[in-house]
Amino acid sequence: MRLHHHAGTLIAAGIFIVVSAAHAEEERRELGPHVHGHGTLAITIEANNVQMELAAPGMDVVGFEHEAKTAEQKSAVETALADLKEPLKLFALPDAAGCAVASADVKVVAEEHEDHHATAEAGEAAGSKEHEAHHTEFRATYALACADAAQVSWLDFPFFDRFAGSGKLDVTVVDANGQTAFEVSREARYLER
C-alpha cells in the first residue's frame, strides 16, 4: 500500500480496510470457499495440445447451488452439462490455431461445508439431509488437439453469453514461457497473450 502523508487519509484508509475485511469475512461465512460469479480456468499449452480445466460455482452456471431437486432444476443441470461439453463454443480460439476437441469431461461436484458436519451426523437420517449445506461446482476438463498451438495468441469468452450468472474467470495460462495469470470478465472478456 502506498504511504500517504496526510493523517486524515491514513485514518480513512484504515477504516476502509477494517470495513472491507469484516465484509469479506461475512461473505466467506455465507458463501463458503468460493464466491458467486467467479470461476477459474487453467490452460496448459504443450506442443500442439491445449488442456483446459474449468471450475465454476453452480450459482454461476444454473442459478442455484444446491442439489437439483425439481424437474426444471434437473433439466437446467443437464443442459448446462451438455453445453459445457462443447468448449469451443464457450472459449473461442484463433482459427489459425486449428484446434479441435479431443476430449471433454464434465461433472458436477457437491462440496460440503465443514461446520455442518456435526448437524448432519447428529440429525436423524431423514432430517439430516436438510441440514447438509452443499455448494455445487461444475468442473470440466478439456483436451484440444491443434494444428498449430503457437497461434493461440488470444481467447474470447462466449462463456459469459451462455452463463448469465458468471461475472469473472481467473485464468492461468501455462506454456513454454512459464505461467501467466489473467482475469477476464463479462465487461472485459478478451484475453491477449
From TrEMBL:
InterPro entries: ZrgA-like
Organism superkingdom: Bacteria
Segments for region (Disordered): 113-133
Protein name: DUF2796 domain-containing protein
